[in-house]
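On clarity, I found the account of how folds are encoded harder to follow than it need be. Since the whole study asks how a given chain folds, the encoding of that fold should be made plain. The format is easy to grasp once an entry is in front of the reader. For illustration, here is how one protein appears when written out as sequence plus structure tokens.
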Amino acid sequence: MTPVAEFNLTEFRSIGRDDALIHFENVGLRYGMGPEILRDVTFDIPKRSFQFLTGPSGAGKTTLLRLLFMSLQPTRGLITMFGRDLSQIPRNELPMLRRRVGIVFQDFRLLEHLTTYENVALPLRVRGKEESTYQKDVIELLKWVGLGERINVLPPVLSGGEKQRVAIARALMDQPEILLADEPTGNVDPPMARRLLNLFLELNRLGTAVVIATHDLALMDQIDARRMILTEGRLDIYE
């Protein structure tokens, strides 16, 4: 593995943006006429908070993350995103609102015709930023996650763990107010898992609310953070 370089997130991320707040109240979700996947889910994601989302397979973690990312609408209940009722937000405004939420999907969703560098820089290119304003940050972040020598490699050549780190770096480049990560350490070794956790903690220290969905009890035991446990569609919270 490429040696991991030091990366100063304080320099990378500007401070002073509006804080994020999410509120779920008695939220339920079902697909079609099937049973409810989520039932009476109520919780807040406070500003600058850090929490793990866990539970057995099939409990609804990925569905809950999709609601948080605004790619699903609930069947019932209230979701408030950044102080706005999600059901009242026009569809054409959702893409702009999603820019305030970073997400790391379990299936990576990299564009296979783009290099590692191009995949990570994509959110900034889409926003029309000049490459000269972000090139250094992209390279430094890729070095930090151990991909400094894989900058010009296409995704089909990367291992599963390398693809996961590219996906994490891409989610961080847009400097989100909320970061959602679906099993972000599932394909990396323990030392890299710890370094990625430290990266999430540093982002949180600088003001980003973080939600990590994971089955990794050893990872959760490394820090004292709130645990949101889904069981058969119902949510329990342990502070």
